[in-house]
# Entry
Amino acid sequence: MNIKSRIETLNFSYKNKFINIDSQSINYYIYFLSDEKIKIGDWFIANQLPHRCLDIVPGDYPFKVINSITNEIGFQSKHWEGNKIIATNNPNLNLPMPSCNFIQEFIKAKNEDNPIIEVIINNDNNILDVISSKRLNAN
# Structure
């Protein structure tokens, strides 16, 4: 199945403490986001962190969530709809992962100041392959 996805990168920091980082690099997780409706069990980005939806209730803060870093349970705003994570290189989320080839292409484009911001992906057997990509400064 081919899916159009936006890409978001978040560094491994939490409260200014970097996790698994050395002095020569900044580590990032790559998140492939979809506009699909968030359902119970889905992961999504809210407040710069991945959260898992535990329940959905009526109101302005309908998503009962668990924070992937702190394991705190709370509620998130309905304004985070459209940030559903469909794939990532973050192994803690147990979602499909991008191929090594894509990660290399993504890093190269980001280092050339021409980041990939949107992709069409083919998700087969939990391996993510990029079919086409849109770069920020594409001609």
